Amino acid sequence: MKQRVHGKIVDFPDARRMLSAVVGAAPVGLAAIDGKGRIVLTEGHPFPQIGFAPGRNGGAPAAEIWAGFPPALDALARARAGETATATLVVGENAFEIKFLPLAGANGARILAIAIDVTARYAAMVQIPEREEFLQGILDTVVDGIVAIDELGLIRDVNPAAARIFGYAPAEIIGKTVTMLMPEPWRSAHDGYIRRYLQTGIGTVVGARREMVGLRKDGAIFPMELAVSELKFGDRRHFTGVVRDITERKAAERALRVSEERYALAARGANDGLWDWDIEAGTIYFSARWKAMLGFEDDEIGESPQEWLGRIHRDDEARVFADIEAHLAGRTATFQSEYRIRRKSGDVLRMLARGVAVRGADGKATRMAGSQADITERKRAEERLVHDALHDGLTGLPNRIL
């Protein structure tokens, strides 16, 4: 190869090899196409998926090489007309870009085709819109409300759930101040809170989850759970609030609290001792009255079933266990059993226990609750009646009936 250097023609025999080495080391493929549309030179990185095979497709018609890629043929035709053209070819999971450059005609070449692998870039271009659409779909379908506000407290965006929770259409609240969603005293305190947080970074709401109340469009105040996170975009600071309407949960909590209070009052007022056996956990709750019936303080009885069953008279154990097993197995509608049980003092009482099992979907008992009644006096009265019926009232001797 001859070059003019300072006005003189100088021969560089290794220049072509050097150029080939440079091209071969670069992640590009080159192909020179002559005026008849034939590939007269191939160099650089091989891309066999799109017909770039250095040293092997010389002389082949370019139209045949790219016959399966209409975008390449279109770009080639425009290059032959003198226009620089680019085609993107997708093969499987890979993407390639071929740029066709018209040449002045050195060594018979009229067009230079430069190919590069653009898989990563192409994937990013395709995936970004898909990812944004996917994320937007998540925001639109999530059941919790999401409210985005800026550092001035203006609502920048809401998802459908947030609009539904507060009773607005999205267009009615976007661009408005977030205080429209707050009743007093939170509304008056909001601006000062945000100002202090931006200045000091100290706050009780941002980065935490807490319960407070919200204000609906119709003026109704409702309980909600709020979690606020801060987002920074350059010098600008935004906040995202995740809102959950907990009206039903609070109602359920109130109903449960009332039920528990009612149960506690009934347990304290009942003459019978109450018990609640968690069969799966192997523990039993005994009411204070149940423990007092046996002469124990509240902290002297644990939660083991042995606290009950271990105190039953030895002669009654087998029958009580059989009654329990029959009910747990579903052979009886309720559990009922009489037995003698030892008090802390050593005295023996006569008891009647009743209960019913709670069963799972498979019919297996998971819990059994009931009461224990002291029938000692009743049993003594029954025994006296039987004795009096069979013995003389004056002498105490057996009568004719006995």
Question: What features would you describe in this structure?
Answer:
The protein is of the alpha+beta class and 402 residues long. The chain has twelve helices and 17 strands. A hairpin with a 4-residue loop joins β3 (28-34) and β4. It is elongated.
Given helix and strand content, the structural type is alpha+beta
For the secondary structure, the number of strands is 17
Overall pLDDT score:
82
Main-sheet strand order equals: 4-3-7-6-5
Tell me the number of helical segments per DSSP (H or I, 4 or more residues long): 12
Question: How do the SSEs run, as a string of H and E?
Answer: EEHEEHHEEEHEEHHHEEEHEEHHHEEEH
Low-confidence stretches: 1-13
Question: What percentage of the residues does DSSP assign to strands (E)?
Answer: 25-35%
Largest sheet data: 5 strands, antiparallel
Morphology call: elongated
Q: In angstroms, what separates the terminal alpha carbons?
A: 142 Å
Residue share in helix:
25-40%
Radius of gyration: 45 Å
